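Usage example:
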Amino acid sequence: MSASSPASPPNPVLELRDIHVAGRGQPRLEGVSLTLAAGERVALLGPSGAGKSTLLAVANGLLVPQRGAVIWEGLPRARQAGRRRRQQARIGTLWQELRLIEELTVQQNLNAARLARWSWPRALLNLLLPLESEACAAVLRRMDLDPELLSQPVTALSGGQRQRVAMARLLRQEPTLLLADEPLASLDPRLAEELLGLLLREAEAPRALLLSLHRPDLLAGFDRAIGLRGGRLQFDLPLQAIRPEQLQELYAGSGELVA
Amino acid sequence: MRPAPPLLVLLPALVLLPVLLMLPQLLHGGGWDLIGQFAWAALTPATDPVVVQSLLRGLGITAGMALLGWALSLLLGLGLGLLSSRLIWHTLSGAAAPAALIRRLLALPRSIHELIWGLLLLQLIGQRPAVAVVAIAIPYGALVARVVSDLLDALPTRGLEALRTAGAPATGALLTAIGPPLLPGVISYSGYRLECALRSATLLGVFGLGGLGNELLLTLQSLQFHELWSGLWLLLAVMLTLESTIALLRRRWSMPRRLGLAAAAVPVGSRGREILLALALLLPVLLLVAGALEVKPTDLLQWQPLPPLAPQGWATALALPWPSLIGSTLLLTLIAAGLAVGAAPLLLLAVAPWPWGRTLLQLLWAFGRLWPPPLTALLLLFVLQPGVIAAALALGFHNLGILGRLLLEGCEAAGPATEQALLCSGTTPRLALLYGRFSALARTYLAYGAYRSDVILRETVVVGLVAGSGLGSQLRESLSGFAWDQLAALLAVYALLTLVGEDLSDRGRQRLLGTA
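Running the assembly step on the lines above writes:
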């Protein structure tokens, strides 16, 4: 248990060892290993179908691999349900389709990120009264959103606002591992750059960020990039060490442009 | 301070609190060993071929009555539905007023439960196979008519107008523009009605109108629990087969789900031939069943003379304790509806952490649907004093079975994404279900609950006849005493109550769905 206490020497936030995930016909992931240290911002690159989403699903515990080990902050997947939930509470995911609860207000959505730490009565009260308004307003401000939005239903928000609320919910969870599955895919370039900037800013030690990108044109600001193709790791290099041929090879034959 | 949708789903369960508080006073220790024997017999049903054969014969009669009653109700319902549609009248004659009149007239047969129709016809015509069929067909036909005309009048009329302005004759234009979009909704609703018809036929049997229900009642009353369970398991098999076949056809013909009460207009397309074939097959089956059950339409014309009225009957009818009769009927409705609507999500939350919990609940709910409420009431009376609570528990359990299945269907339709996201951030399975799935289905579920409450009000008569509460128990006395004046007064009050209830539930539903 000492591994998770802040005083001990920091374990990697995430460690994947020789991960195998079976798929129809060919495996979705084959022998993938990687390490994410505190403070690292890592981009996950690859053509569509490379296994990026599968890798993220393994990293956030949604998918249990057939082989290999997933280690979060020095600990493997807990067997006991309560411990497992505390582990999950430290993993934050920004989903591609956001997965906001459409019928609730912005504040209730933000507080939904605290459910892992809240008791039943509090979770029910959140459906009746505005709880912890100050903390909710604070995460909205960090995302450059007006705290006035707290009482709005999320259906009343614009696309960009929804994206930011989803990110604010991620912050409200206070995770150490930030995972994001193509969060910029459906955004216009200016908005994509802004949101990426906000995410990168939040990923300071003890946190770490693993973000999947469809196209390698927004790499500035990351420390490392990982190339995935056909379920296998092609490269895992600091940004400066990546050569253009490696990127071209990664996307070769996929018909997808390399910027 | 408006409660958010997932919380709204849990509010009806508040009715559990007073019920649980009152239960200890109502319990009497007498029959716990009987309940134990009953539960044990579930695992050891009788397999004696004589017993099974007689049960199978009963089941055949019940299924046959259900099928015939259902088919007749569809025929009636489609015809009357077209007749009470504003659109049809408007297109064919230019005036829509007669539609409203017919609609209002149809409210009367609809407001009276099939069991009352059955018992009335039993008195008038005597014990004949046709009685149960007609008893089902009358209220069901009126219900189908209402749904058909609602569907019709909610259809977009642009296509029809286009055809009319292009000079198409009225009937041709109606068939072309309205037929195809109407069909999926009608077929989907018919499937649901067939499920209901099986339940109704079983119920009618309990009151002596033929079929398995009667055997269930007799075995329960004579404490032959092993034989009782043989019948129940058989009925369960038939019911689940029917339900899954209907679900399969609904999916195959891409019909709207039941929870989406407003039917989406899905083109039938290539499945049209299959549907026609199914209809063509249905007709000879119906004729065969009618022959086997000896259902003869001419039976309906041979009325028995009514016994004479007692002197001063109307005075005694007026002297009945109306306020308490009506009050207990309403209380019964309220508690039963709260139990059914509220307990389903609560139970689903309770078993959320366990993978087998859901399967267990599905089985429990299947039994709820299967069990005729009067039998549940009789069983409850082994350990409970008769009264509103016992009746409400029986009625609530039956409707819980129906609402629970619907809630699960709704959960599946809501999709796993949000719940998964919550689970991944460490939320407990229960809260993830509450926030992740109940949010999306809250309004439609409660809207269906409002509709169901109105059905429950109509069904109070069924348990009232057994558990001694509400208008139902008075009705039984008046029926057995041939007090036709009292009966007429009771039926009028019943019809009035259910019509008011229907109006209230309609308004509630519109409010729930309108603000969605």
